[in-house]
Amino acid sequence: MFMFRSRRATLTKRLLKARRRRGGDDDGVARLLRELQDNQLGMLWAAVESRGRDMSSCVLLPKERQAHVLCCQTWRWPELVHGADLRRLPGCRSAGDPVYVCCNPYHWSRVYQPDTPPPPYCPMDKKPEDSFRNPSEWCRLAYWELAQRVGPLYPVEAPAVNVFGDVPYCDGLSLETLSQHNCNAPESVRHGRCKIGLGVTLSHEGGSVWVYNRSDNPIFVNSLTLDSADSPLPTRVPAEQCLCVYDPKKAAHRTCGWDFTTPFGPVDPNSIRISFAKGWGPCYKRQEITSCPCWLEILLAPCR
Q1: pLDDT recorded at residue 145
Q2: 204 sits in which H/E element
């Protein structure tokens, strides 16, 4: 019994010490920790300690208490105000539960509201093998290092897929594995690979495509429904935030009667580009995305 109490006290002390928000609702945090079962305390500490590398454990509490907001404020985003600014990661298994909500702060992402929309898309030359033959695929992923496509295309049928760097025990597309096809990469590319980390989660939700930035660095996104001919900049999505990068309703409105030609080049309505850590365009050192060390191209299935 003494060892049992000692472990609980140790976990509680570690979680309190790991707080990013202090001086807020400290009494509420203390009450929350007291109400958690011992295994839940262990799961919460594992998530906080690993900074979300373990996506398997949900920490459930009654939904009406909005405890997930308090947890996200305490261990991730001290400046968070509203629960409406949060969006559950696709890997969280508690979605749809009518009674409980997951309070693992690393099962949530912040919805990013871009200030400035990015430029039109300038497509790469497609290869014959890039055409879709499997109707269950909603996209294919192409990984690029500078102007070189690295490894084969990765078909995606599941509603969500993780794309990450050198992270053990993750399911999805490992860019570290693909990078073995480019053994003579320059130093800038090798340095860029180190910044990918947990990378991104791509999710196909009701026809829309969401990108969840799970890395420690920003990503830069360019797509049809984020485009603006008035701005030559991609959308910068900070670490730990998410953004809807493809909206079928906006896409239908944009493509109606449009010839996909702009001052910045042609636009591919079925493609999304994501650069890890490095932006491109007139306000950046790199003018084209093909100058970015590590980037991802999402090739959406046509006739969405």
Answers
A1: 95
A2: strand 200-205
- Distance (Å, whole) CA 60 – CA 94: 8
Return the bridge partners of 300, or none: 139
What is residue 163's DSSP assignment?
A: E
Pairing of strands 173-174, 208-213: unpaired
Query: Is this structure's pTM higher than 0.90?
Result: no
Q: Among 230, 210, 228, which Cα is nearest to 274's?
A: 210
Query: Which of 282, 277, 268, 235 lies closest to 115 in space, CA to CA?
Result: 235
Given the DSSP bridges, would you call strands 160-164 and 139-145 parallel, antiparallel or unpaired?
A: unpaired
Distances (CA, A) of 141 to 6, 197, 286: 48, 18, 23
Tell me which residues of the chain have a pLDDT lower than 50.
1-3, 116-125, 128, 228-230, 257-266, 304
* Contact residues for 186 (Cβ-Cβ < 8 A; gap 6+): 146
pLDDT recorded at residue 117 = 40
Q: Are 136 and 266 in contact (CB under 8 A)?
A: no
At 69, which amino acid appears?
A: V
- Give alpha helix (H) positions in the chain: 2-17, 26-35, 38-50, 67-75, 175-178, 187-193, 248-255
Q: How many CA atoms lie within 13 A of 226 on its CB side?
A: 32
**Half-sphere exposure for 290 (CA within 13 Å, toward CB):** 8
- The DSSP-derived string for 54-99 is ------EEEGGGTHHHHHHHHHT-TT---GGGEEE-TT-TTTT-SS
- Helix (H, G, I), strand (E, B), or coil: what is residue 119? coil
Smallest CA-to-CA distance from 204 within 165, 244, 237 is with 244
- Report how far residue 236's alpha carbon sits from residue 24's, in angstroms, rounded to the nearest whole number: 30
pLDDT tens digits for range 183-239: 889 999 999 999 999 999 999 998 999 999 999 999 999 988 885 434 557 899 999
Q: Tokens for 182?
A: 């480019």
